[in-house]
Specification:
Helix content is about 5%, strand content about 35%. It is mainly beta and about 700 residues long. The longest helix is centred in the N-terminal third of the chain and has 18 residues, at about 1-20. The protein is rod-shaped.
């Protein structure tokens, strides 16, 4: 390419000199890229050559061959040229050597018209406009960190016919002169994002920072006026506004004659401004400091603004993020990555309260962003999580430092925001009341269950507290202190210690299996509710089951007519309710039905042996004995608890007129008066009458 340029330049100049009659112009072109490349006119005739000639030039013919553009002159006769030539069938006049040279180089109209058009376009109509700027030089493309400022410059050469005045020199300019300023372009007067500190958002500079002579190095005498051919330098700052996304931005500029339109050409100058990635964050909103008792948890939230120029990704969105991205997590700091004693099992780790955003808002902090897992620059992220205080944790005020981190970058990238919240742990006993797993009850039956009272707090519960129910309880037992107080706690309970107490109850009466809750609470000696002591004990109340299984009987009796004999039958209580006979019914819970021995097959059949019975179909309405499963007699012969054995004893009286023979008498226990009277336990005795 360099050879082409050099040779073309030489050829155009050679054509010009010869067309103007300078037959002695003989320049040797040396120092070409290839050694030995020398151009001169040694191959041309000394005075006659094939070139278009300008008007008024002449030559003296000494050659026997006629010159191509003249008649054959005799001897040394001078030949003058009119400068006319025929190009593409049209006669034209060659007024100067430049025109002749171009037509020699490209002997066609189209070629020279193209040259003229391109020249005018490239140099901005240098012959038509008084204001023409040609790009001369500029500073390297700048790179800015977020919020950073840098100084750049662009230089233009004045190729017009008028001098340029800046604001500093306008007072000395001719009347009516407008100043030359540097303006943003593409489009013209575009508002630049980097314009902080400029005279206006579309005017980087209104004064020349330097004026040089045409060599671009020597300072001109006047540093505020640019004469034709001189060079003006505009110097200005670019400031990142901290709101731009990281990337490269093309900033276009051109000189303008202020107050006019269309005088200056656009040289097409621009700077590629690279805004470097910057991860920055600021606290947007802090919630109230929490007060938390030992073993309790409390929700907490904090909001941060993405003040950087790259998006934030949480753990849910990092998989779709560009390669090389890192998720933004909330970390414990002071120092960074410290395990917090207030971490809960819901935290990602003891030093990471949250790794996903609870919400992402637009810059107003209220409108939800389209993507709830990616926070663009300027948007707001919210982290929500729970703080928890361990059991028996010492009372006091504790500072917990929090800050977002760019997970996986070592130091976390984000600077320490010095953000903290104070957790207040009160001095107080804190109790958990528990039964494992729950209390099994039987409808209408009294009982007791063991209740564990554990002090999870950091202060001792003094003696004199009371186990109570919060309101009227369906489980109230006659042994309670009163309707809402179950039992007094006579001993103190230190932090970390526990006691077990036996809680009496009377199960509610139900008709079917029922799950319920027995609500209790601990009241201290000052009649205050002990923190966390309100508990709901889960209960399962079984529906009443009255069931009997035959357990034994006396020998089959043999009786003479008119005489009598005693017999008995034993039944095991295989239900879940105690049996009461007539003697104990008065002490039974209200609504209880007695258990009697009845005739059977069919039930309530009248017996011929019943003259001494309570009725002709009820051999016995009271137990004659109650024993445990091992046969040992029990102290209460009138109540048969589940698993115990009740004995019914009665007399067979044989009428004197009853025919001798063998009689079968059938029996079973019944729940007298209940629709669920049939308890099973069918038995029989064979009576022989002699």
């Amino acid at each position: 390419f360099s050879r082409q340029v050099i040779v073309a330049a030489w050829q155009l100049r050679y054509n010009q000199e010869r067309s103007e009659g300078n037959v002695n112009w003989n320049v040797q072109v040396s120092n070409f890229p290839q050694a030995g490349d020398i151009w001169d006119n040694s191959d041309d005739p000394p005075s006659c050559y094939a070139f278009l000639m300008t008007q008024g030039t002449f030559e003296r013919s000494t050659s026997s061959n006629p010159c191509p553009y003249s008649s054959s002159p005799p001897g040394n006769q001078a030949i003058y040229y009119s400068g006319s030539a025929v190009i593409d069938g049209t006669t034209i006049q060659l007024d100067n050597g430049a025109t002749a040279s171009l037509y020699d180089y490209t002997p066609h109209f189209a070629g020279n018209e193209n040259f003229d058009t391109l020249f005018e376009q490239y140099f901005g109509g240098i012959y038509a406009s008084p204001y023409v700027a040609s790009y001369f030089s500029q500073s390297p493309y700048p790179s800015l960190s977020q919020g950073q400022q840098t100084t750049v410059y662009i230089s233009y050469q004045n190729l017009g016919s008028q001098p340029w005045y800046d604001d500093n020199s306008l007072g000395t300019a001719p009347s009516g002169t407008d100043p030359v300023h540097l303006a943003t372009s593409s489009p013209i007067n575009r508002v630049s994002s980097f314009s902080s500190g400029w005279p206006s958002p579309n005017r980087p500079d209104v004064n020349f920072s330097a004026v040089y002579l045409s060599d671009g190095a020597t300072l001109a005498p006047n540093q505020n006026v640019v004469q034709p051919g001189q060079i003006a330098e505009f110097s200005f700052t670019l400031t990142d506004p901290q709101t731009l996304v990281a990337g490269t931005y093309q900033e276009n500029f051109q000189p303008v004659v202020e107050g006019t339109a269309g005088l200056f050409n656009d040289p097409g100058t621009y700077l590629d401004v690279t805004v470097l990635p910057s991860n920055n964050v600021a606290v947007y909103q802090q919630y109230s400091d929490p007060t938390i008792y030992p073993t309790d948890t409390q929700s907490y939230s904090v909001m941060f603004a993405n003040t950087g120029n790259v998006p934030f990704y949480d753990s849910s969105s990092i998989g779709s993020a560009p390669t090389g991205s890192y998720p933004t997590h909330l970390a414990i700091s002071c120092p960074i990555n410290t395990n917090s004693p207030f971490a809960t099992s819901a935290w990602a780790s003891p030093d990471r309260p949250a790794i996903n955003f609870a919400a992402v808002y637009l810059s107003d902090g209220q409108t939800l962003a389209p993507n709830q897992n990616i926070a663009q620059p300027g948007q707001i992220i919210k982290y929500s999580f729970n703080f928890g205080v361990p059991a028996n944790y010492t009372a006091g005020s504790y500072s917990v430092c929090l800050q977002p981190v760019l997970e996986g970058t070592g130091n976390g990238t984000y600077s320490n925001l010095n953000f903290s919240t104070n957790i207040t742990v009160p001095s107080s006993p804190v109790f958990s009341l528990s039964v494992s797993p729950y209390v099994q009850m039987v409808s209408g039956i009294p009982g007791n269950f063991n209740l564990s009272l554990l002090n999870n707090g950091n202060a001792t519960l003094a003696s004199g507290s009371t186990l109570q129910v919060p309101s009227t309880s369906a489980y109230q037992s006659p042994s309670w202190l009163n309707s809402d107080s179950i039992e007094n706690i006579t001993s103190s309970i230190a932090p970390g210690s526990s006691i077990n107490i036996s809680v009496p109850y009377l199960a509610p009466t139900v008709s079917s299996n029922t799950d319920g809750s027995f609500d209790v609470q601990l009241i201290d000696s000052s009649s205050n509710l002990v923190h966390d002591s309100a508990s709901s004990i889960q209960t399962h109340i079984a529906a009443p089951i009255y069931s009997a299984t035959f357990a034994g009987q006396s020998n089959y009796p043999t009786i003479i007519q008119g005489q009598s004999a005693t017999a008995y039958i034993c039944y095991t209580n295989t239900g879940n309710e105690p049996w009461y006979d007539n003697n104990s019914l008065g002490s039974a819970p209200s609504g209880t039905y007695p258990v009697h021995l009845a005739t059977s097959n069919p039930v309530n059949a009248a017996s011929v042996f019943s003259s001494s019975w309570p009725s002709n179909n009820r051999p016995d309405v009271n137990f004659t004995a109650v024993s445990s499963c091992d046969g040992a007699a029990l102290s209460n012969p009138d109540v048969a608890q589940p698993g115990q054995i009740a004995q019914f004893s009665f007399t067979f009286n044989v009428p004197s007129n009853l025919a001798a023979g063998t009689y079968y008498e059938y029996f079973q226990p019944v729940l007298e008066g209940s629709t669920a009277w049939n308890m099973g336990g069918f038995a029989w005795l064979r009576v022989t009458v002699n």
